[in-house]
Amino acid sequence: MTDLLVDNPLLTLFGVVAIGSLIGRVRIGSFSLGVAAVLFTGLAVTALWPELELPPIVFQLGLVLFVYSLGLAAGPGFLASLRGGGIGLNAIGLAIILVAGVEALVLATVLSLDAITSAGMFAGALTNTPALAGILDAVPQVSDSPNAEALAGHAVVGYSLAYPIGVLGAIASMSVLQRVWRIDHDAEARAAGLGPMDIDHWTVKVTRTDLPTIGSVSRACGARVTASRLRSAVGLHAPAGDERMRHGDVVLLVGTPEALEQATGWLGTRLEEDLSGDDAMDMRRVFVSNPALVGTPLRELRLPEQHGVTITRIRHGDVDVLATPSAVLHLGDRVRLVAPRHAITRASSLFGDSYRTLSELHILPFALGICLGLLVGLIPLPIPGGATVHLGIAGGPLLVALVLGAVGQTGPLVWQMPYSANLTVRQVGVVLFLAGIGTRAGQELGTALSDPESLLVIGAGAVLTLTVSLATLVLAYKLLHAPFGLAMGLLGGLQTQPAVFAYADEEVGSELADRGYTTVYPMAMVVKIVLAQVLLIALL
Question: 214-232 pLDDT, tens per residue?
Answer without folding.
Answer: 888 888 776 678 888 888 8
